[in-house]
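#lab-general

N.A. 3:47 PM
ok so I finally got the sequence cleaned up, no stray characters, all 214 residues accounted for. can someone with queue access submit it? mine expired

B.Y. 3:52 PM
send it over

N.A. 3:53 PM
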Amino acid sequence: MSVGPSTSREFARKLMQINAIRLQPQTPFTWASGWKSPIYCDNRLTLSYPELRAFIARNLKELALDFQIPFASVVGVATGGIAHGVLLAEQLNLPFAYVRSAPKSHGTGSQIEGHIPPGPVLVVEDLISTGKSSLEAVEALRLAGHSVHHMLALFSYGFDTADVRFQASKVQVKTMSAYADLIQVAEEENGLSVTDMEELRAWRKQPETWNQHA
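B.Y. 4:20 PM
back already:
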């Protein structure tokens, strides 16, 4: 679930305008996993635009309130979810902390940085692909004794495997925008060819095997 379709498309449009999202079906990107992808998303670029930061903070707050849960804290997933998590914590006047992908190899060896008071935790991610790294952060928080069942993200690719993982982990997720709305905006405004649009839709269905020859 995400914000309404008009807001989702508006955010997707804003991301493309600042090149936070780039679409290159003919010259795909390579992810760390080895997957070929016609899209690259870097939500960190949004932090350079004050009006866009305000838009994000406002809509993250609305999504958080829509859960109707008395959250005790906001926790960002390092590193992309840290800054946007701080924006939301400010909006909600809540404590903020963040969780690393792994414990530090030096010092205290902490994986969770900051004080998290008792009560429901709201996790903030910048981007959801397969959901694996997001849920690893959730698991780290749960192992530390925290109650975590809700997550917000700026953008999601909408993969079925992510939906299955979040359901199995009993984590409710809301996003500001998603791939389906993005490619609709791209088709309407970016003048992509029919072939490009076909590739973008094909990737969404089978991302792990798409364009293996590239």
